[in-house]
Amino acid sequence: MAPSLFSALFPPSPTFTDANLPSLSGKVYIITGAASGVGYRLAKMLYAKGGKVYIAARSTARCSGAIEKIKGEVGGKGIGKLEAMVVDLADLRTVKGAAEGFLAKEERLDVLWHNAGVMTPPKGSLDKQVNSQEMGWRE
Predict the structure, then answer these.
(1) Which of 2, 79, 89, 132 lies in the 20 to 30 Å Cα band around 54?
(2) Containing domain of residue 98, as a range?
(3) b/e map of 41-51 (b: 16 or more CB within 10 Å)?
(4) Which CATH number is 50's domain given?
(5) In terms of C-beta density within 10 A (0-12 exposed, 13-18 middle, 19 or more buried), how is residue 65 classed?
(6) For the sheet containing 52-57, what is the strand order?
């Protein structure tokens, strides 16, 4: 069995974990789609290691819910900061306001993780600027 097939069937232990992550004190992150899934897990990890993490999601309720849940799960081990960033990436008009709000508060941005996305948009769905949300071919 080829090594690549073997590692695909039996993946090795992850190398990027919170156990070997250094202190992130002073670092600033924006994570889109951080209210759930992979983005949420990443935000939780960075917050626990001292990073300032902006939870970017479509609504205040989603941002606040994720922040409260992360704080509850991490407990006293959370040494970073969590901030809400309301931005709907399907409506580009919200991006400018979110960016201006961020720039008014911060002098730096270390990492921007573009994690948000619609996994299976309905066929023919459009964003607020009337662009297709689908990628790939059309029938």
Answers:
(1) 132
(2) 28-113
(3) ebbbbbbbbbb
(4) 3.40.50.720
(5) middle
(6) 81-86, 52-57, 28-32, 111-113
Structure tokens at 27: 């670092």
In this predicted model, what pLDDT tens digit does every residue of 53-81 receive, in sequence order?
999 998 999 999 999 999 999 987 778 99
What is the residue-averaged pLDDT of the chain?
Answer: 84
> How many residues belong to the chain?
139
Question: Could you tell me which residues come within 8 angstroms of residue 70 by beta carbon, excluding any fewer than 6 positions away?
Answer: 40, 43, 44, 47, 55, 78, 82
38 token code pair: 């992979």
Tell me whether residue 86 is in a domain. yes
Looking at the 3D structure of the chain, how many domains does it have? Answer: 1
Residue 137 maps to a domain: no
Q: Report if residue 9 sits inside a domain.
A: no
Query: What global pTM score does this model have?
Result: 0.77
Per-residue pLDDT of the chain (139 residues; tens, 9 = 90+): 556 788 888 888 887 788 888 999 999 999 999 999 999 999 999 999 999 999 999 899 999 999 999 999 998 777 899 999 999 877 778 889 999 999 999 999 999 998 866 555 566 555 554 454 444 444 4
